[in-house]
Amino acid sequence: MSCCGTNHDELIDIKNDESRTLPLSQQLSKGIKIVVLGEMATGKTCILHRWITNEFTNQTATVGCAFNTKTISYKNKIIKYEMWDAAGQERYRSLSQIYYRDATVALLVYDITRLETFNAVTDWVAELKQNTSNNVMIMIIGNKSDLKSSRQVNSASVNEFIHSSNSNIIGNIECSAMTGENISVIFDTISDKLLSLC
């Protein structure tokens, strides 16, 4: 993954990408922008790394934003994902907002063993609403399902939040970046939703 702050050409090219004005069916191969948001140490970078490489490695805290792409063949369609992994630390919160522009999908990640990370999802949803179109698709991701014995967030609380949020939430999945459980399900769900809209 490259840090957004170190490769200005990459940042400028993506920011000025005209593909966002194309119909969704044409955007699939040009790039679907996903922003990955959540509090620090929820495993956002580990989830992306697991999906891209199918390996787990402990990651250091993201500084600013990390960027990566992955192109997949899914149900006879080519889909290119541009993933913007925003740092969860408070000091980078205002910087994260510049990465929301033209996002099609937002992954909001919380740690099932830390209630405060789930409680912060409300703030991330509000921030998304302020900085994106109402059409951005939101996926709520509970990471660290391999630590269920230390669970602080139950599925009833998550479902209650989803039903009361008045947002375009397309799904709620628990996963484990460490074991790989449900990582591919996240992106299959997104891909299915995108294809259903084409």
From TrEMBL:
Gene3D superfamilies: P-loop containing nucleotide triphosphate hydrolases. Its EC number is 3.1.4.12. PANTHER family: DRAB11-RELATED. It holds the Pfam family Ras. This is Rab9, putative. Keywords: Hydrolase. Belongs to the small GTPase superfamily. Rho family. One of its GO terms (molecular function) is GTP binding. It comes from Entamoeba dispar (strain ATCC PRA-260 / SAW760). The lineage of its organism: Eukaryota, Amoebozoa, Evosea, Archamoebae, Mastigamoebida.
